[in-house]
Design a protein that fits this description.
alpha+beta; 3 helices; 3 strands; about 40% helix
Amino acid sequence: MRKYSYTPSGVCATNIEFELDEGKIYNLKFTRGCNGNLKAIARLLEGQDAARAADILRGNDCNGRGTSCADQLSKAIDEALAG
């Protein structure tokens, strides 16, 4: 299992951490942000296919910011899968 850390931009969350194992997401944690919603996202994505999760979350907008914590997670996953 490989651990990843990502610093999001333009959102309330200040860090995103997760692990990938055989293309699946585990132990997803957000620092700051909308606590209940981000915990729910983490629970929903536990053990799910990372590429599929990124496709679903990509482009999600929060209050006209052009991004969101979910969208930033998609970028973090894309980087992790590419690296």
